[in-house]
């Protein structure tokens, strides 16, 4: 059921309240998991991504207990013309906030013009009166900051995208020599590949992901996150695993939406990194995506400080763009930055690599829901 947006007063998200004060049009709050219009809207909107989809939102809710909510100016009974989707994150550690969206590289407001965006941003600002610490938008443009009437803070990241429309030979010619050498090395070493969503592949991915996260001094995501994504996304998710002498040595997870394949996670056993497994898997994913008629590979976000990752993505011939996260708060200085930065403190880096494996895994299970 859709509800008109409330005035600046108390009340829980989703409560039936009156139209927003001072608004030029009524805004409505909907549950994208139960309102059947949302998935239809996302499937047809040119700026939508897999992160807007009902399966992704359902995985966030099922794994971390987040409550998805979307705002729109489209009234009940009418097709959706616009919408901004969030998750309500409630944590005794990091506070109560709206995030669009946790653990998602980007989540553009799906609007037709600046007027619609202004209407919805105004509605979201009113939610700050409901004991929220802040609201975070993960979008590539500057529109939110220009429209917001309350204090804002920003974090900037790099987004890489690759046009996979050209033929395979042209794409291969566009690769950096190091990427080509990696692919050739994997072929010489006789790496074999498996793909799908079986329990065997999921277990291999989870094990390799733990090795990679320990190497990066970051806690591993809970295995339930990947299991829920696989169950809910179905054919739109694929685990690709490279094996050396039947031993899994590298893996990637890709997501599909409309004409785009998203390279979301990559992991490997450092003992076998010289075999070129990750590069070979990405190249295989590109060829498969082309065969399925997809047009773009989304490499996801990177920190500008991570020169190694930036260089790796550049070497595929991908194009960079700036990805800005906008945080709106009631008062200047209240906005929290990227919650994931907490893992990068000196204390975190000093402790995490030395934790026993069960404790290391437990840290991720206990605390990821607080940092979304």
Characteristic terms for this protein:
single chain; 372 residues; alpha+beta; Aminopeptidase; 2 domains; 13-stranded mixed beta sheet; globular; disordered N terminus
Structure summary:
By secondary structure, this protein is of the alpha+beta class.
Blueprint (SSEs and pairs):
Layout (H helix, E strand, L loop, with lengths): L2 E2 L23 E3 L5 H9 L9 H11 L2 E6 L11 E8 L3 E6 L13 H14 L6 E6 L3 H5 L4 E12 L4 H6 L3 H12 L3 E5 L2 H17 L7 H11 L3 E8 L2 E11 L2 E9 L8 H15 L4 E7 L4 H8 L4 E10 L17 H6 L5 H15 L1
What portion of residues is helical?
25-40%
Could you tell me how far the N terminus lies from the C terminus, measured between alpha carbons in angstroms? 26 Å
Query: How many structural domains are formed by the residues?
Result: 2
Number of helices: 12
Spatially, the strands of the biggest sheet line up as 1-2-3-4-5-6-13-7-12-11-10-9-8
Q: Could you explain the architecture of this structure?
A:
With 372 residues, the chain is α+β, with helices and mostly antiparallel strands. The protein folds into 2 domains: 171 residues, 3-Layer(aba) Sandwich (Aminopeptidase), CATH 3.40.630; 162 residues, Gcn5-related N-acetyltransferase (GNAT) (Aminopeptidase, 3-Layer(aba) Sandwich), CATH 3.40.630.30. Helix content is 35%, strand content 25%. The protein has a 13-stranded mixed sheet with strand order 1-2-3-4-5-6-13-7-12-11-10-9-8, with helices on both faces. α2 packs antiparallel against α8 and α6 packs across α9. The N terminus is likely disordered.
